[in-house]
Write a structure and sequence with these properties.
With 694 residues, this protein is mainly α. It is built from 28 helices and four strands. The strands form two sheets. The chain has a two-stranded antiparallel ribbon. A two-stranded antiparallel ribbon has the order 3-4. Helix 19 runs antiparallel to helix 20.
C-alpha cells in the first residue's frame, strides 16, 4: 500500500478509537507538563503515548501520519532532555500536531484519499523546533517501485559476467562525467543531455540487476524529457543527476551485487518526482507515468483543498456543534414565519426578533467559510427588514420565499458537515448543480434498494437448496438480478451489471431451463459469486475504497462455472421457453449437456426411453389382480409408483456432465435395492387390500 492510494478505512476504523484515546492522553500529559515543567514524568508519558500512536499508524500503513508522530515523539524527547531553546513555540507546535492528527485520520476514515503532502508544513515545523532542516515534498512522494519494467528497459538477453559489467560501467562513467560537466558549464547543452541519456540507456542494456536497470532507465527518461523541454533544468535536478554518476561509479567498483544489497530507491523516487510534476508529456514522460502510475500519486486541487480544510480546523466535530446551533436558530425563524402565515392579520412587527437571529446566523456562516449560504441569509435578512419598515409588502409569496431560502441553507449546512470542506455540489442529470447531501441521499436509496433485492436473490437460492432442488423457488431470480443490475447502471458502474447478467444467464439456462441440480463444488462457486457481489454492494453503501478488488473473485468464480464471458442463450431454450418448466425427466438434459458430455448422449436422448422404463418395471413386479372398470382409475396412482425408481438407474446422465448431477446421483446401489424391495412389498399389500376396499 502506498501513501497515494486510498487506504482500507475498515482497518483504520478498528484502531481509530484507540488512536483518538491515546492522543487525548498525550494531550493531557502535555498540558500537565506545561503547567508544571518540574514534573518530567508527564512529558515522558506524552512521548510514550506518541510512540504507541506511531507504531499503530505504521501497522495500518499510514506512513505520512506516522512520520508526523515520529517527529512529535522526537520533539517531546528533546523537550524532556532540555535540547530545545524556544520551548513555548515547541509546546505550541506539538499541541497543534496532537490536535490536528485526529482530524486528518477522521478524513481518511470517511473514505477520502490519503494526501500526506498537507502534513508537510506541520512536519517541518516540528523539525524546525529541534533545529533540523526542512524536508521537501519528494520525501512524501512514494511511487510503487515494485512494478515490472517494460520491454524498453529489458537487460541483456544472456547474463553478462560481473567483471564485464564493471568494465563496461567504468567506460560509460567517463563519458557520463564529461557530458555532465559540459552540461553544468552550459556548453552544447542539447548534445550533452542527449549523451547522458544515451549512456543511461546503454547501462540498462548491459545490466542484469533490476534495481540498477530501473534507476538508469528512469534517469534516461528524465534526461530525454529534459531535452524535449518538458521541464526546466533546476539546480535540484542537476544535483539529482549528479548522484546518478555516483551510482555508476558504485557499479564499476563493487559490481551489481551492491545494488542488490543497497538498492538506490530514494534516488529513483527523486527522479520520478520530477517526472510526476512535469507539465507536459514530452519525451518518455508518458511511459514513465504509465509504468509507475504517477498520475494517481498527485492530488487534484480539490482534493488538496479538502485535506487542507480539515487541518485548518473545519472538522466534523466543530461543524456538528455549530450546525446544530444554526439549525435551532433557523427553526425558530421558520416557526415565526409559519405563525405569521397562519394568521395574516398579525402585526408584521412580531418578526422583528427574527432579523437579529438571521444576522447572527449570517455571521456564524461567514466564520465557517460558507460564503454562498451567508449571502442567502443576508438576502433574507434584508427582505424581512424591508417588510418591517414597509418598503416591501409582507405577502404570502414573499414569506414563502424566505422560508424556502432558509431550507436551502439547511441543506448546504448538511452538505458541508458531510463533506468536511470538500466539494459542495454534485452534477445532476439535467446539468443543474445538486447539493452533495441530496445526491448522496439519492444514491443511498438506490444502493439500499439493490441490497434489498439481492437479499431476496440469496433467499431464493437458499429456498432452492432447502426444498431439495425445487426449481420453482428460482422463478423470481432473473427479474431480481436485472433490477439490481439496473441500480448499478444508474450509478454508472460497468462491471457489476455484466457479472449479474452472467449469474442471471446461469440461472435461466442451467437451473430454470434445463432443470439441473448443481453439485457441491458448483454450489460453493455460486456462493462465492453471490458473496462477492453482496460484499461489493455493502462496500458501495458504506463508501469503502478499493471495493472493486472483490470483483476479481466474482469474475474468477463465473469463469469456473463456464459463464464468463457470458454465453448466448441456447437455441432450444429460445424456441421453446415454455418447456423449461416441465417436470424433470432423466432423458431430458442429454440434448443440452455441456461440452464434456459424450457425443453419443444426444442421439440416445431422442429415443422414447421414458415409456420403456415403466414397462420393464411392470414385468419385474407382480401383476395386479384384474379389477372392474370403475376401479381402473384407482390403478393409475398405484402402477407408476415403482416407475421413477428404475428410470434414473437406466437413463441417468453419467457424472461429469458440466459438473451437474441428477437427483439420483448420490443414491447407493444397495440403498436402491432396499428401496425397490420395500416398494414391491407395498405393492403386494395394495394388491391384497384393494379387493377388500372395493
Amino acid at each position: 500500500m502506498r501513501l497515494s492510494e486510498d487506504i482500507d478505512f475498515t482497518t483504520l476504523t478498528w484502531v481509530k478509537g484507540e488512536l483518538d484515546e491515546t492522543l487525548k492522553q498525550a494531550r493531557h500529559a502535555l498540558e500537565a507538563y506545561v503547567e508544571d515543567p518540574q514534573d518530567s514524568s508527564q512529558m515522558r508519558f506524552c512521548a510514550t503515548y506518541l510512540h504507541q500512536v506511531h507504531g499503530t499508524l505504521r501497522m495500518v500503513e499510514l506512513y505520512g501520519a506516522a512520520m508526523v508522530t515520529e517527529e512529535m515523539e522526537r520533539l517531546s524527547t528533546a523537550l524532556l532532555e532540555g535540547e530545545v531553546k524556544e520551548r513555548d513555540e515547541a509546546y505550541a507546535v506539538l499541541m497543534r500536531g496532537i490536535v490536528q492528527l485526529p482530524d486528518y485520520l477522521e478524513r481518511l476514515q470517511s473514505g477520502h484519499k490519503d494526501i500526506p503532502i498537507v502534513l508537510l508544513p506541520l512536519l517541518n515545523e516540528l523539525r524546525a523546533s529541534r533545529g533540523e532542516k526542512s524536508l521537501s515534498e519528494s520525501v512524501l512522494f512514494t511511487p510503487d517501485l515494485s512494478r515490472a519494467l517494460p520491454e524498453s528497459a529489458k537487460g541483456p538477453d544472456l547474463p553478462m559476467p560481473d567483471l564485464e559489467v564493471r568494465q563496461f560501467a567504468e567506460k560509460q562513467r567517463s563519458q557520463f562525467q564529461l557530458a555532465l560537466l559540459n552540461w553544468f558549464k552550459g556548453q552544447d547543452i542539447d548534445a550533452n543531455i542527449a549523451k547522458i541519456s544515451d549512456v543511461c540507456d546503454q547501462l540498462v542494456a548491459h545490466t542484469n540487476q533490476e534495481e540498477a536497470r530501473r534507476l538508469f532507465w528512469v534517469a534516461a527518461g528524465v534526461m530525454e524529457a529534459l531535452r524535449a523541454k518538458a521541464f526546466e533544468p533546476s539546480q535540484q535536478l542537476k544535483q539529482t543527476i549528479g548522484k546518478v554518476e555516483r551510482e555508476i561509479k558504485r557499479l564499476a567498483d563493487a559490481g551489481e551485487s551492491s545494488f542488490r544489497v543497497d538498492p538506490p530507491r530514494d534516488l529513483t523516487r527523486n527522479l520520478l518526482y520530477f517526472v510526476a510534476h512535469a507539465p507536459t508529456e514530452h519525451g518518455r514522460i508518458g511511459e514513465l507515468r504509465e509504468v509507475f502510475r504517477l498520475n494517481a500519486l498527485l492530488p487534484s486541487e480539490e482534493e488538496l483543498a479538502h485535506a487542507q480544510g480539515v487541518l485548518s480546523g473545519h472538522n466534523r466535530a466543530l461543524l456538528d456543534t455549530v450546525s446544530a446551533a444554526i439549525k435551532d436558530d433557523l427553526m425558530r425563524v421558520k416557526d415565526a414565519l409559519d405563525l405569521h402565515l397562519r394568521n395574516p392579520d398579525a402585526d408584521i412587527a412580531t418578526l422583528q426578533p427574527q432579523v437579529e437571529v438571521l444576522d447572527r446566523v449570517g455571521d456564524t456562516l461567514g466564520m465557517l467559510g460558507l460564503g454562498v449560504a451567508r449571502r442567502v441569509i443576508q438576502d433574507q435578512h434584508d427582505a424581512v427588514s424591508d417588510m418591517l419598515n414597509g418598503s416591501r409588502e409582507a405577502t404570502e409569496s414573499a414569506l414563502l420565499d424566505v422560508a424556502g431560502a432558509l431550507l436551502y441553507v439547511e441543506a448546504s449546512l448538511d452538505d458541508q458537515v458531510q463533506g468536511m470542506g470538500g466539494e459542495k455540489t454534485a452534477p445532476a442529470g439535467d446539468g443543474r448543480p445538486l447539493p452533495m447531501a441530496e445526491g448522496q441521499k439519492v444514491l443511498d436509496a438506490v444502493v439500499k434498494e439493490a441490497q434489498s433485492n439481492f437479499a431476496q436473490v440469496k433467499q431464493c437460492f437458499v429456498a432452492f437448496v432447502e426444498s431439495s432442488w425445487d426449481h420453482a423457488q428460482l422463478t423470481d431470480v432473473p427479474r431480481l438480478l436485472e433490477e439490481v443490475a439496473g441500480a448499478f447502471r444508474i450509478m454508472e458502474l460497468d462491471e457489476p451489471p455484466q457479472y449479474l447478467a452472467a449469474v442471471r444467464r446461469f440461472t435461466e439456462i442451467e437451473l430454470l431451463g434445463r432443470k439441473r441440480v448443481p453439485n457441491g463444488q458448483q454450489m460453493d462457486t455460486l456462493a462465492d459469486v453471490l458473496a462477492s457481489l453482496e460484499y461489493f454492494i455493502e462496500a458501495l453503501r458504506e463508501h469503502r475504497p478499493k471495493r472493486d478488488t472483490v470483483l476479481q473473485t466474482t469474475r474468477d468464480s463465473l469463469e469456473s462455472l463456464g459463464y464468463w464471458p457470458i454465453p448466448d442463450l441456447p437455441a432450444d431454450l429460445q424456441a421453446a421457453p415454455a418447456e423449461a418448466s416441465a417436470p424433470v425427466e432423466a432423458p431430458e438434459p442429454a440434448p443440452v449437456e455441456m461440452p464434456a458430455a459424450p457425443a453419443a448422449a444426444a442421439p440416445q436422448a431422442s429415443e422414447p426411453a421414458a415409456p420403456a422404463a415403466p414397462a420393464e418395471t411392470k414385468t419385474e413386479a407382480p401383476t395386479p389382480t384384474p379389477a372392474p372398470e370403475p376401479a381402473a382409475s384407482t390403478e393409475v396412482p398405484v402402477a407408476p409408483t415403482p416407475a421413477p425408481v428404475s428410470a434414473p438407474a437406466a437413463a441417468a446422465p453419467p457424472p461429469g456432465h458440466g459438473g451437474f448431477e441428477g437427483a439420483a446421483d448420490d443414491i447407493d446401489d444397495e440403498i436402491r435395492e432396499v428401496f425397490i424391495e420395500e416398494v414391491e412389498e407395498e405393492i403386494n399389500n395394495l394388491e391384497e387390500l384393494l379387493p377388500a376396499w372395493k
